[in-house]
Design a protein that fits this description.
By secondary structure, the protein is of the alpha+beta class. It has two helices and six strands; from the N terminus they run E-H-E-E-E-E-H-E. The protein has a six-stranded antiparallel sheet, with helices on one face. The model has no long low-confidence stretch (mean pLDDT about 95).
């Protein structure tokens, strides 16, 4: 029996009774972002979005891809990715089962990292 696969443009909500909110925030910065800064950001983002932290932020540095960080919330979590090369750039993926303010998340992220440019997409 084959299962139909739909492309993103035709994606069906298979669980409409479960609330989900997703946000990607990306930015350019003028200085590298390290482990301690990522941990502070994810912890403070939890407060800004009024999320309950279940697991304190963890980080890892890859020699190939740069820094990554993650925080676990009662209502899901957030991932952080930071590059030094080929440019100073970050990407944050927020996924929750609780509503939050996109404007607050984007504004806080831009201010926290003093980003020179920020782009975001909610879906």
């Amino acid at each position: 029996m084959s299962v139909p696969v739909l492309h993103a443009s035709g994606m069906v909500d298979l669980a409409p009774e479960i609330y989900r909110q997703r946000l990607v925030v990306e930015g350019l910065v003028s200085a590298p972002i390290g482990s301690e800064q990522i941990k502070r950001y994810l912890s403070q983002l939890s407060d800004v979005l009024e999320m309950v932290t279940l697991l304190e932020p963890v980080t890892h540095q890859s020699d190939t891809y740069g820094w990554a960080g993650w925080i676990h919330w009662e209502t899901s979590g957030a991932h952080f990715y930071g590059w030094d090369q080929p440019r100073l750039f970050f990407s944050v993926d927020i996924y929750t089962c609780k509503a939050f303010s996109v404007a607050d998340a984007v504004d806080f992220t831009q201010r926290f990292f003093d980003a020179t440019e920020v782009a975001y997409r909610e879906f």
